Amino acid sequence: MAYQALYRVWRPQEFADVVGQQHVTKTLQNALLQEKISHAYLFSGPRGTGKTSAAKILAKAVNCERAPVGEPCNECMVCKGITNGSIPDVIELDAASNNGVDEIRDIRDKVKYAPNEGRYKVYIVDEVHMLSTGAFNALLKTLEEPPKHVIFILATTEPHKIPLTIISRCQRFDFRRITAHDIVGRMMHIASESNVVFEEKAMHVIARAAEGGMRDALSLLDQAISFSQDQVTVEDALTVTGSIGQDRLNRLAQAIYRQDVSMAIETIDELLQQGKDPVRLTEDLILFCRDLLVYKTAPNLEESMERVLSDDDFRQLAEEVRTDQIYSYIDILNESQQEMKFTNHARTYLEVAVVKLCQTEPKAVTATASDISDLQQLILRVQQLERELKQLRQEGAVMTSQPDTGAAPAKKASRGSKDFKAPVGRIKEVLKNATKSNISQIKSRWGDMLESMNRQQLRSLTALLNEAEPVAASNDAFVLKFKYEIHCKMAMDNGKLLETMPSILQELTGSRYQIVGVPEEQWLEIREDFIQQQDQSEASNEEGQPPKEDPFVAEARKLVGSDLLEIQD
């Protein structure tokens, strides 16, 4: 019989053999035992992670003569027939070559027929994302309500290309990349069963090169077995995968860290003369730096390292190098890797990158005023406000501790302690010319104005306006009431605020308004005083002159007449 590749010989025949997908196999086994089998499944995930194998195992389990079972027996005639492909009840389709409407219509016409030997007809559609739009539409209704004896299993590596109407009709299982640890364990089992002599480190090299795919790992192992003489060694694995030995990477990284340009270039030259690809070498260096950073910041996560195994040289380098240097190394290597994609001189870019790495100096950690973030500025401002508030409380405590010479003098002293005096004349002028349209216009765009200030990185100024509210506005100015006197004082003393806010309001409303700030306590007094003055002015009209009627009442009188109008104050 012709030689078969390892991944074909060792294709999983039961769920226990599917490596690294316990979240999928456990769910399917429970569904089989409870006989809660869905009519359609969608298996998605990277290549070589067991999607098609799991689909065939599920097809055997639902048709097994001993069903319901969590694992197919692989001994009955049905299980053996599905394994060797002699039973027509399990139909495998490659959607890449059968992606037309006619093929799907043929399936739709044949699903009505009962299975020949098993309990279910199972359609396994591989690379289902390759189907055309018309084919998906033809499959839609059949997939939603197939006959009771039909199960669809769709497999894909690109689920985002499948219409949502198809996905919503399936139970979806996402297959993950298999960890290097699981791949090594499976390969060691296969090599032992196949009587292959190997070095354990060679298995780690192959597993890291497979990038999470079991099929890729077994293909590389097959190549390494063919390349080797009597034993699969680390050198064999490095040669087959095109990877670089950890000792070479350690030596190159040490030369870069010690800024030994000649040693680094010499090491690069040796590797390239051995046939290593400059792009692959750059990628290996990036992964080495990544593993260096992981080991330095979280030494307990050694299993998550992708490129290296921690040895003495690696641990020593991790202790010496600083994290900011590693960040710089990764940035330079990543930039060079991007540039290599568009050039025919990849070696030159690699050598230039290595020289840059050797000349990288550790960044001095300095903190200047310009580096302080907005949050830090806000914290400093809050601390300043707390100091000022504490000072005001102390002054108030000193004033209350003075001998009380009478109610009137004490009240006068209390008023004299205020630091901010609102401009009463300007406020009354605004009230005299105030209109409802102006104040409504400002209030309607007040939120937009605060948001605009936040976008301009003026959060510290916006904080002063959180408790502020526009209360009156004329054509050229508006009164801004503050809940706390200290906020009003800080706002009115801030030139940037007085300059920025009118500009933003002009952009939003089309009118430029000057700001007149007033604390809430003083605002109540000024407004009451203004109302009293208005009442006295109206009362001082000449005798005999009829009082001026309210415009609203006059308009109502015109509409309904005096007989039907009743005025209540």
TrEMBL record:
Top-level lineage group: Bacteria
InterPro entries in the cross-refs: AAA+_ATPase (IPR003593), ClpA/B (IPR001270), DNA_pol3_clamp-load_cplx_C (IPR008921), DNA_pol_III_gamma-3 (IPR022754), DNA_pol_III_sug/sutau_N (IPR012763), DNA_Rep/Repair_Clamp_Loader (IPR050238), HLD_clamp_pol_III_gamma_tau (IPR045085), P-loop_NTPase (IPR027417)
Primary enzyme class: transferase
Entry EC number(s): 2.7.7.7
Molecular function via GO: ATP binding; DNA binding; DNA-directed DNA polymerase activity; metal ion binding
Similarity comment text for this entry: Belongs to the DnaX/STICHEL family.
Name recorded for this polypeptide: DNA-directed DNA polymerase
Source lineage: Bacteria, Bacillati, Bacillota, Bacilli, Bacillales
